[in-house]
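Q: What would this complex look like in 3D?
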Amino acid sequence: MRELAFLVRLAAALARLGVLISVLYMQSAEAQMVVVATTSDVASLVKAVGADLVHVKTIIPPTTDPEAFEPRASDFAKLADAELIVRVGLGYDYWIDRLTDRLQRPELQQSGPRSVDASTGVPLLEVGGRDPLAQDDGHGHGMANPHYWLDPVNAETVTANIAAGIIRVAPSARDTVEANRNRFLADLHQRLATWSRQLAPYRGAAVLAYHNGWPYFARRFQLNIVGFIETKEGVPPSAAHLSRLIAGQSGVRAIMQTPFELKRFSEMLSARMGVPVVTLAPSVGSVAQATDYLSMMDYNVAVLARTLAPATR
Amino acid sequence: MLFVAVHANFGLHVLKRGVIFVDLALAQMSALGATIAFASGHLPTSTWGLVYTFLFSAIGAALLTAGRGLPKVINKEAYIGILYVVATAATILAVDRSPQGAEHVKQILVGGILTVSATELPKFVILYGGIGAFHWIARRPLQLASDAAAAGHGGSLLIWDFLFYLSFGAVVTSSVATAGVLLVFCFLIIPAIIGSLFARRFTGALMIGWLGGATASGFGLAASFELELPAGAAMVVAFALTLAIAVILRGFISVPAEYRKHRFRILVRCVLVSILTTVSATMIWLMVMPGADQPMLDVMEWAVGIGPETFLTPGEREIYADARREVRVRQSQATQQTSLERRSRWQGAPLSDDAVRRIGAFQQAFNEMARGEDFVVESLSTRARERERWYVGPAILAAAILGLVIIVPRRLRARFFSRSWSLLAARMLRRHTS
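A: Here is my prediction, written as structure tokens for the whole assembly.
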């Protein structure tokens, strides 16, 4: 009988504890700002700046090619309670405005008070100045080359934009956001020094890329991208283009490829030219090692340095 | 050549059975197998990957064989179409969350015939050789099964049906991954049609099909090289042209020598009628919509060396020439800025962010100027076309119609007009009476 009373008391205590935990959890969830990021890269930077203040949702799944992404019905649910949207900009994620337009939330639209264009202030490369929705060379690069987050120095500008956006929505969070950002930047600067040291021996190394996605990375680490396998997205290269690549690029030391791109052409060129293919992570989550922004850059620099190393010996 | 050799054989069977789209359905079933293997953590080229691929091929083969038992109201092609669409949708669902999966699906569609390496060839030779040998040994029952399938009976031959589809699935699985769905379809169907155009017997048709397929592949690859075209698509067009030539050739070969001159006259007449009809349609389009795209007129102008400048005033002509020159200049200035920035990434001192922004501003300005000049060129071209429609349109249209009247034999003309008139009269009469 006494045992039964003890068990009943224990069950009641556990139930009270459960209620307390769930109340605390709901309070913390309520306190968190819901931020929707279009890609896993900006999502990772939002987490770095917002930390516990934000609950980040990503629209493009990390293992999906962002340049081939089509929004789905479930994305409306993600956007329904969004307090802030962070976009890559430059037409890279133009579809987001169609979604927010359908939801009739003008504050989330481009240049709305609850929208952050992460590209603002970034020194752009290969500027075309076209309307992002206009037909162009098939890469969606009409406005400018949109792969700017692959230069780690641009993460400073991107995080500044994100911090300003969070503070605009929640002014009381200013101190925490700034402290988070400073901590992230300190880590970034430390790692940038290591990355630059790792790739310094390969300054001017000639490389081929499948897609024109690496100009910012090349600028930061002084690589010479001499050509691209793809001339138009989704259209296989012609025999003439491939043979020109083989004939004209005798000094090429690596072929840069992402997990989203066809491997056959890179592998064929690799076999013909005797140069290795290196699979880099163009976005957070595209390879298993790239769990966040900094580890993505760690991975890219390490794997590229390793690939270029034997060729220099 | 290897692809042509093995596919033409299957193509003849497929034509006989009247199940043209079966290759797509089987290819998609095996692609689904490879994709599910991938989603379960096996590489498509690993043993388990191949087991999954072949297993799904076998399921596809079984489903196609079972298709025989369906009631007659369900069309065979509809059944195959449903199989294809469901397999494709299932593949898309299976690869939705995996990056390499998306690449896999792209590969299935476009393929990469250029990237077949010498080390891969033995694999194909063994596989195709094995299947070729099986088809040679079992040629009798396979033929019987195909004939029975075409006639819609032959229940006792179901096992041969299944074996046919299974071997077909194995070939299509490997070839689709290499050449892509579009090209495999061409390899399969077009040489087989070419063969059956010239020969009744299976072996003869196969030989001629091989010859036609080899010629088309050669021309397609050469065109891809010379004209900078994607190899797969260029080969598909080359196959279609070869088929057209084969059809024309057959028109001459199949008749006695004394009729050939007559056939040749018919051919010339057909070509002239097509040209004149196109010219007439182009002129009508020009007169109705001078500002719209005029692709045929562009070709005609390019062929005779007359451009929109001819229909502009001297002042407009000067602006037109100037704007075209400016487009080139501005585009080359923008390209120069791009090259400058690209060189600076690794040569000399790195550019500061401000210097990069300055280059970006120049690129934007030059590109916008080029687009502005482009707009001038386009508006003047439209103005020229608006004049051209009255100077050129009616005259050429009248000449083309006159040409058609002369070329088309009186008998055909009379039949066409009498039918048109009688139809018109009947319609008017109906309206009048109602």
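A: To summarize the key features: The mean pLDDT of chain A is 84. Chain A touches chain B at residues 61, 63-65, 68, 123-130, 144, 203-204, 215, 218-219, 222-225, 234-243, 259-265, 267-268, 271, 286 (CB under 8 Å).
Q: Very helpful, thank you.
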